[in-house]
Design goal:
The structure is a single chain. By secondary structure, this protein is an alpha+beta fold. The strands form 4 sheets. The protein has a 3-stranded mixed sheet, with no helix packed on it. A 3-stranded antiparallel sheet has the order 7-5-9, with helices on one face. Strands 6-11-10 form a 3-stranded antiparallel sheet, with no helix packed on it.
């Protein structure tokens, strides 16, 4: 698969420990890649099916068959390119953690397939992505985020993951003596952070 057409995940696709990909793709024509659209006639034909008036980056309005159609905001990018340069495009291809902006649980996914993301989820780049993904997915850290570090709640069960709250989470740095397995995740995390039996009962009752 080329860089130009990439699988994409949405916030709703992110589940606990994994994702349910909806078989959706993104045409990732980032300006920083300097693509020549003439080399990709199928992509060019598909994009033009939406109308040049909608694709051009001029900010102008056009009247088409009595309907007012507004072009994308004015920029120096070419008509087939994304609106922003996205100079960090290569970060999408690094091992990363993906999580939804709004959620009802600790939904963090490890990705090494190079998924793109829509605006309803975020990514976290780290050399310890697998370790951190398991830690954040635990009941302990779900409890910590919901009841201690997060100030943005959405109704009775929903809440919002935001960078400022995630940065406050006290996470042990990984080292060779720490081994976390998915099937024993919560027990291992409780032991690692010295959580008492009474505290475990309180966490798991929420």
């Amino acid at each position: 698969m080329t860089y130009k057409i990439r699988p994409i995940l949405r916030g709703r696709d992110i589940k606990r420990y994994g994702y349910e990909w909806a078989n959706l793709y993104l045409i990732a024509t980032f300006p920083s890649r300097h693509y020549d659209i003439e080399k990709y006639p199928a992509v060019k034909e598909y994009l033009l099916s939406f109308g040049m008036e909608r694709l051009e980056q001029t900010g102008k309005s056009h009247v088409i068959r009595g309907e007012i159609v507004k072009a994308r905001k004015s920029s120096n990018n070419k008509w087939f390119e994304t609106q922003d340069n996205i100079s960090y495009w290569d970060d999408f291809f690094k091992p990363k953690i993906i999580y939804p902006e709004t959620t009802q649980g600790a939904y963090f996914v490890y990705d090494n397939r190079g998924f793109m993301l829509d605006k309803t989820c975020f990514m976290l780049i780290t050399n310890d992505a697998e370790y951190l993904q398991l830690t954040l997915s635990s009941k302990l850290f779900e409890f910590a985020y919901k009841h201690i570090f997060s100030s943005v709640s959405l109704g009775d069960h929903g809440y919002q993951y935001n960078k400022h709250a995630l940065l406050k989470l006290p996470i042990y740095k990984p080292h060779s003596s720490i081994l976390i397995e998915k099937d024993k995740l919560d027990k291992q995390i409780y032991k690692l952070y010295n959580i008492s039996e009474q505290e475990i009962k309180e966490i798991e009752s929420c």
